[in-house]
Structures are given as C-alpha cells and as structure tokens.
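Entry 14. Ran structure prediction on the chain below.
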Amino acid sequence: MTVLDTRALNRATLARQLLLARSDVPARDAVAHLCGLQAQEPQEPFAGLWSRLRGFKSADMDDLLTGRQVVRTHLMRRTVHLVTAEDVLAWRARHDAMLRQRVLTTYRRELAGIDPEEVAAAGRAVMADGRPRSMAELVQALADRWPAPPRRVLGELLVAALIPMAQLPPRGLWRTTAGVRNVPVSLWLGREIAPPETADSDLTGQALVRRYLAAYGPAATADLRAWCGLTGLPAAVKALREDLITFRDERGRELLDLPDAPRPDPDTPVPVRFLPAFDNAILGYHDRSRIIDDAHRGLSVAGERVVLVDGRVSATWSVRDNLLVISPLRAFSAADRSAVTEEGQALAMFLTDGDNDRVRINPVADPTQ
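Output, structure tokens:
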C-alpha cells in the first residue's frame, strides 16, 4: 500500500481546501465544497473565504446570509457552522443524536430528571410563531415549567441540540456586531429538514464521507470522526469501500480517499495563506500533523489565527488598531518575510475595506525554534 508522507498529505489538504491556489468558484459553492465553515466567531469566515477565493467580496457572504442560501447553525461537533441551506436540511437529522448526547453529557448533573422530548415539544410550541428569539427569551418562556436547571444550560439544550435553529442576520454580517436571534431552520428556509433514515440505510452518512474526503482527504476514519463528531459512520464507510482507494501515512494509519481527487506532487510550491480562528483546514483532523507541528497544536483550539508558510502553520496574526500584526513561530527567510508581508498587506486592505495595508512582523520569540 502506498505510503503518503506528511508533505504529500499537506499538499493534498491545501488543494482540497482551496489553499493551493485561489479558486474562481462562487462563495456559495465554496461553502458547499468545504462542507461548511466553522463560524462561532462571526467574522472569521470572511477571512477564510478571502484566502480561498479570487476576488471574494464581503458583500458576497452578506448576500448569501440575508438571501437564506447559507445558514449559521449548530452542526458538526456541536459548534456553530456556516453551511448551505441544502446541507443543513440534508444533514441535521443525521447529527441530532450527537448534538443531544453532547449537551446531555456535558450537563448530566444539571439536567438530571428532565425529559428532553418534553422540553423539545415545549420549545417548538413557543417558536412556532416564527418570531426570532434570543436563547434567554426562549428559556424565559419555559422557566415556569423547568425552573431548576440553570438558564444557560436549559438554553443550550434547546438551541444547540433539541431544536434545529438558524441564527439570523445581522448576526454574521460583515463588520457587524449583533446578538444571536434564533428561528427554527424549517421556518427560516420554508422547507422541512429531511427526516431520519431507516436503520438499515445511511445514505446521508455515505454522502458525508464522500463530501469530507473531497474537501479533506486522504484521511483516516479517526479524522472523519474528529471533523463531524459522529461515531456511527462505520457502516457508511464499509458501504463505500469498493468506491474508495487506500493509502498509509507514516504512522501506519489507513487513509481513505476518492480515486479522482487531487493529490499534488509533494514539492508543489505553496503560497502564503492566512487562516482565521478555528479554521477546519486544521480542526478537520484528529491527526493535524500534516499542517501544524505538535508543539503548536494548542493554537488550533485556542482561537489563534495562523499563517501558513510552505503550507505549515508558521506564525499567528491579529489586528490591533487597524494594524495587522504577525508573530512568527520560527525565523523567516528573506523570501518568506517578503511573501508574508505582501499577503498580509492584501489581507489588511480587505479587512479595512481598502483603508490601509499596514502590517507589522514581530521578532520571533525564539529564533532557534
């Protein structure tokens, strides 16, 4: 079985993630291809798409949100994702059990003795009028029936697990600060969520596997689990086995992939890319060594924005007083420094709507690293 080293996996990931070369596809198609964008920080998807799409404009995403073509909702890993309307309708039922279990496990003591089905039915009845509500407003309407659990806990159970909710604009619009207002997905989109499939069929699971490999492969089943949070996909993988090809990584793990998916030469040159906080190009794997060193793995879950140099996490970035500040994790060559500065200036112009291209590269904390 062919072994793919870390560099080969890196180039494959960058190609699938639209980071090897900017794509000309529309923003909606990019969101679909990437299986959604992590979006608990509302402004981060804009930088993620800017780094992936040629000529991306913030208005492109605003139009998709207000036009109900993409939706902010809890989905993979019980985190807020920006996904297409079609995908949330097709995928949500497949994620229901995982979403419930994660909330019920996290708050086992606080929710002891509560019947989730009763809470869900009461919540749906309140939300049936289609009026957008904050989580606090929804909980307030049910407080007389369930006074014991902390309101935040009951709210998370309702909004992040029991009732498929869309977070409405202006939440998530460009350079806009707005609280979360929820409406059931089916009311917001005017279409019902696809019902759960029968026990002997998991076509949705098979579609998830294919879509994941198209955007993240080659990957192990542990990577697939880490991305979506679902544990019940072995049957889907088994059903697809004959349609997939397999490799090994340097640790000996089996990697699955689609036969015709891109796997560029490991020596393919890679441009500098700036990634937003919690980007799935990193979080979409259990083994993230293809793109980030183990010593820096904590950055991927701490909300740090990162810079890819030669395809690997080599710096963090932030914005302070309209200045884009880059903090290297290792010493840059002169060519790397020039490329990082140029890409940083372009990002600064995007983030400030063309007002300035100010960039500062800090000294590396430890030049020997």
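The chain has a mean pLDDT of 95. Will compare against last week's run tomorrow.
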